[in-house]
Each structure stands twice: as C-alpha cells, then as structure tokens.
Amino acid sequence: MNFLRRYALIIGLSTLILVIVILLSSPGLWLSSGVTFIDTELNRSSGNEVYVKTRLNFGDYDQLAAFPMKIGEWSGWPYPTEKWEEILKTDLMIMRGYTRPGIYQPIFFLAMQADTESSFHPPHICYAAQNYTVVETTKDSVTVTDPSLAGRSGSLKVPVERMVVIKKSKTGEVTERRVVLHFYVKGNQFTSNTITWVRLEALVPTEGSYEAGLEQEKELLVAALPLMFSSADKDEWHPIILSLADWGIGGYILIVLLFAVPVAIIFLPRRR
Questions:
Q1: Contact status, residue 142 vs residue 162, Cβ threshold 8 Å
Q2: Measured between alpha carbons, how far is 27 from 237 in angstroms, rounded to an integer?
Q3: Which of 54, 138, 157, 236 gives the lowest tally of CB atoms within 10 Å of its CB?
Q4: In this structure, are residues 174 and 190 in contact, taking their beta carbons and an 8 Å threshold?
Q5: pLDDT tens digit string along 18-54?
Q6: CA torsion sign, 38 to 230 to 151 to 180?
Q7: Beta strand 70-71 with 133-144: parallel, antiparallel or unpaired?
Q8: How far, in Å, CA of 89 to CA of 130, rounded?
Q9: If DSSP states are collapsed to H, E and C, what string results for the chain?
C-alpha cells in the first residue's frame, strides 16, 4: 500500500496518457492490416514493388480453391495439381484454364504458396526441367483501375515479369511457344517464411508476334487481381474514441470506465 501511495501519481498519469493515446489512435495502428507487396524478384527488391492488402488467404486451401471460376466474361475449369504438389512440396495450389468468348486457346492460371526454401526457385529453372528454353525475359506491368485495388490514386501499376519459352523437336524445330506472366507476393520476412507465386501462361504461335496472347493474359490478370488483393491505402483517421461513441450508451460507459481507472489510481490511495 505504501508503494501504491508513493507512486500513485506517476502510475495514474502514465495510465491516463496510455488511455488517451489508445482512444485517439486509429484501430489500424493496433490491428494487423495484412499488408504485403507484389514484386518480380524472389530474394530481393526490384525497386518496382507495390504494396497491397491480401483479400484472398493464399495459406488456406479452402479459400484458395474457392477462387472464382467465373471472372467477368472469363470462365474457368480446374486442372489436376497432384504432380506439381509433389514436386513443389505444397498442397496450397490451384491450376485453372480460363477462356472468354472469342478466345479459343485458354489462359493457364496458377496460384500457390509454399515454404520459400523448399519450393521457390527461379522460373527459368522450372521451365528448363520441363525441356523448355527461355528465349526472352523482361520486366512488364499491368495497370489496374478497379477502385478496390487502385485506391485513391485511381490506378495501380502492378509489376510482372514476362517470359517467352519455347520447346523444340529433336530436329530443332520450334513445336511450342508460351508467353508467361508471373509475380511473387511477399509479406513481412521477419514473421513469415512463405511466398506466394502467381503465374499466367498463354500458348502463342510458334513464330511471329505473340501480342494477341499477351494482351489476353493481361486482360485476365487485370480482372483477377482485385479478387486477390485490395488497396493498401491507409483508412481515413477515425479514432477509437469515436468508434466507441458510435456504439451508443454502452460505448460512452466504456469510455468513462477507461478514464475512471487512472483517476482512481491517482486519488484513492491519497484518501486513505
């Protein structure tokens, strides 16, 4: 009791300051907002990364599997993933084919999450293991204007890496060519050892321009991104005390009780 009486003023004022700070702060300061970033580099920053909030929980298979088969005009169907799950040591994976009216070759969509060390390595190694040759690698981007993802800026440029891979016959003839768009989704590396990988592929003519297939991939990606992510814009400041006041009489009582605790610490020991 002597200790409390001696230090009541310091403890009470400290508690009062803490209560004021909490009540005047935004809930987002205390609650995790799930902010991650999209980038084209696996183990370092490309300098072009963009920050987003994850709308789709890539670490939950049920949510991942529930990713829409219907995206605007695009209709999809699943592909078996057992082979790739074994190779990449993960069961958090979906593989889809998507088409829309006027498109006869599907766009192949893959989303997966796994341990950074066991499953993720440069895509050119993956394609080489499948007898593909990477003939082009370049940085690219897609521009999203959906307000839920673009936020207050009105548009968001999402970085992707574009790859062109080919497969040749024994005689050296190109028998297959694909255009690939992919990116990584990375969170706080101090708290998570997982990385999500999203990839789209389009079969394109073995020679000549591949622009048509590339534009179709980008069209699907622009439609799909707002289903996976939302804007990382900070919400307008709305302090906790106003949120409590919005509750009505119960909120006001809680506010009074929060202030009553430090006041009681300051004055009650002095009355004894």
A1: no
A2: 9
A3: 236
A4: no
A5: 888 887 776 554 544 456 888 888 777 888 889 898 8
A6: positive
A7: unpaired
A8: 17
A9: CHHHHHHHHHHHHHHHHHHHHHHHCCHHHHCCCCEEEEECCCCCCCCCCEEEEECCCCCCHHHHHCCCCEECCEEEEECCCHHHHHHHCCCCEEEEEEECCCCCCCEEEEEEEEEHHHHCCCHHHHHHHCCCEEEEEEEEEEEECCHHHHHHHCCEEEEEEEEEEEEECCCCCEEEEEEEEEEEEECCCCCCCEEEEEEEEEEECCCCCCHHHHHHHHHHHHHHHHHHEEECCCCCCCCHHHHHHCCCHHHHHHHHHHHHHHHHHHHCHHHC
Alpha-carbon distance of 66 to 96, in angstroms, equals 12
- Measured CA to CA, the distance from residue 142 to residue 50 in angstroms comes to 12
For 169-184, b/e burial (b = at least 16 CB within 10 A) is eeeeeeeebbbbbbbb
CA distances from 163 to 64, 129, 210, 213 (A): 25, 16, 11, 13
Amino acid found at 253: I
Q: What is the pLDDT of residues 187-240, one digit of tens each?
A: 754 445 777 899 999 999 999 999 999 999 999 999 999 999 998 875 555 677
Alpha-carbon torsion (36, 192, 122, 125), positive or negative: negative
pLDDT tens-digit readout, 124-153: 888 888 889 999 999 999 999 999 999 888
- The model's pTM is 0.73
**Amino acid identity for residue 48 in this structure:** N
Alpha-carbon distance of 146 to 143, in angstroms, equals 9
